[in-house]
Amino acid sequence: LATADFTTVDRKAPIVEIRNPTPASFVNGNAATYAFAVDADSAIDRVELRVDAGPWMVAGVRSLAERLYGVQFPTLSDGPHLLEARAFDTFGNQASAAPVAFTVASASPEIIVRGVLDGEFYNAAVLPMVEINDAALASSTVSLNNFDFVSGDSVAADGEYVLNVFAVNEAGNS
Length: 174
Fold this sequence. Notes:
six-stranded mixed beta sheet, rod-shaped
């Protein structure tokens, strides 16, 4: 019987994809960042992530079963950012993920109420005006005594009123 020693060589790069944040998403300044990485022929040696062409940071394993690797970056400033990821296998092959553009929005929506003041009494009709400002507003509700209210509608009947305004942006800030 003849025997021979041989070594297999992996010449294929790993597969790497950014999973969070998603493209064109809005996130808080301390959002989790992670990438998926797998190699069919060898093990993943390391995954690295960076934001805005900054230094590459080695990602830790977030979920071995799901093959997710993540980095918790310092709080990012509000505005647009670009996340990049790359993976290396144990044979030195490297692959880069498609970069993901996302926007950090750490502020809550601005709510401005005009035409009425909290705790005031009025002897004439009032016109409460509500303005909600946020570049990434996801949803808002305005109610008067728990009924939908349209900003600028006249309130003329005698009584006690409670005006509630709620707004949340795409990053989850309210």
